[in-house]
């Protein structure tokens, strides 16, 4: 079901098996997505608890916040889609919150890509605060300002008497309204993400080639130390590419099909159930890929590796301590005097007390 309206299955009598199956699948996907995002959020908090210094990473903070926003989205979404109400202000707030929690994680992902470009290839110091503030402010404004029109514009601009009555198959006026308020900004986020990742990938591949040449020269001229530094630089570039390639996938997978659904409905004047099912499945993938973006982040992976090593070391020390304790107990048991009650008759006869 599309992000754009709240009518969907709520305001019609669900009669066909396909519509009933779509409703069941949607609820299951919302629950799954909320659980995945909440799990990723808790994982991020555990990582930060083990290594509090990771909070200094701007991208880590943004990714953790995106998990919570995505969780809130999939808590609000079933309420927005399936709750019946005829109160216009309630529908306005519901539409605003549903789409705000949709757009904010998407634009925060694009923020991560652009900020990495500035740091890695334009030598912007991570200690400088103004690039982060400017980018983050722009991301939030692009997410919230267009969809705030749901709160302030008259419903007649969408060709309805109330935002509770947005149609599944839109009229021309409603189609243009949704394209201007929401859809074009979803396309913009995905397009910027694709361009940024392609530019980042091109520069990383180019830098890796130069690093490879420097690696060979260093091995021949300067010995293993310089060669190791070159190899470490190449590994860092590869990790950077792998950690950013997931960011534009989120808006492309989860939002672009919504626009296709809206456009197909507008031009054909009918609902295509296979596309509706595909759209619901892609919604589940958004939480999955957003969680991956957090888990494979290089800073998070380093902290997790350190935590794993510490747990393994503590377990080994505990096992060694337990082994030493067991050995000491066994040795004491060998030399512990036995009570008369525990002796056999032969042992009692040979004991000094009976001689």
* Percent in strands: under 5%
Helical content stands at: over 70%
Q: Whole-number radius of gyration? A: 30 Å
Q: What is the overall number of helices?
A: 11
- How many β strands by DSSP? 0
Shape label: globular
Order of helices and strands: HHHHHHHHHHH
The end-to-end distance, rounded to whole angstroms, is 96 Å
The quaternary structure here is single chain
Structural class: mainly alpha
What's the story with the biggest beta sheet? none
Average of per-residue pLDDT values:
75
Question: Low-confidence runs (pLDDT<50, min 5 residues)?
Answer: 4-14, 223-230, 338-345, 347-355
Layout of strands and helices, then pairs:
Blueprint: H1 17-50, H2 58-82, H3 88-121, H4 130-144, H5 149-152, H6 172-221, H7 224-244, H8 249-268, H9 273-295, H10 298-335, H11 345-350
């Amino acid at each position: 079901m599309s992000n754009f309206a709240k009518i969907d299955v709520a305001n019609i009598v669900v009669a066909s098996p396909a519509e009933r199956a779509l409703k069941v699948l949607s609820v299951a996907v919302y629950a799954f997505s909320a659980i995945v995002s909440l799990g990723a959020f808790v994982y991020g908090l555990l990582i930060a608890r083990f290594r509090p210094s990771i909070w200094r990473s701007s991208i880590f903070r943004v990714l953790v916040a995106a998990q919570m926003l995505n969780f809130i989205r999939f808590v609000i979404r079933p309420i927005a889609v399936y709750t019946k109400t005829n109160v216009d202000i309630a529908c306005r707030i519901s539409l605003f919150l549903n789409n705000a929690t949709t757009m904010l994680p998407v634009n925060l992902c694009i923020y991560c890509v652009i900020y990495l470009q500035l740091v890695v290839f334009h030598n912007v110091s991570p200690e400088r605060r103004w690039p982060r503030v400017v980018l983050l402010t722009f991301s939030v404004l692009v997410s919230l300002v267009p969809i705030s029109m749901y709160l302030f514009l008259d419903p007649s601009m969408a060709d309805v008497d109330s935002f509770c009555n947005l149609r599944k198959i839109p009229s021309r006026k409603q189609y243009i309204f949704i394209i201007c308020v929401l859809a074009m900004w979803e396309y913009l986020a995905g397009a910027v993400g694709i361009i940024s990742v392609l530019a980042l990938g091109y520069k990383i591949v180019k830098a890796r080639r130069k690093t490879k040449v420097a690696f060979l020269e260093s091995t021949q001229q300067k010995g293993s130390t310089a060669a190791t530094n070159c190899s470490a630089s190449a590994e860092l570039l590869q990790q950077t590419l792998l950690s950013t390639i997931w960011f534009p996938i989120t808006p492309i997978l989860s939002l672009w099909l919504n626009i296709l659904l809206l456009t197909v409905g507008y031009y054909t004047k009918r609902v295509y159930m296979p596309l509706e099912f595909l759209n619901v499945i892609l919604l589940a993938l958004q939480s999955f890929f957003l969680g991956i973006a957090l888990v494979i982040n290089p800073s998070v992976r380093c902290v997790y590796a350190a935590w794993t090593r510490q747990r393994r070391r503590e377990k080994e020390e505990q096992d060694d301590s337990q082994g030493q304790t067991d050995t000491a107990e066994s040795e004491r048991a060998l030399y512990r005097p036995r009570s008369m009650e525990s002796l056999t008759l032969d042992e009692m006869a040979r004991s000094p007390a009976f001689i």
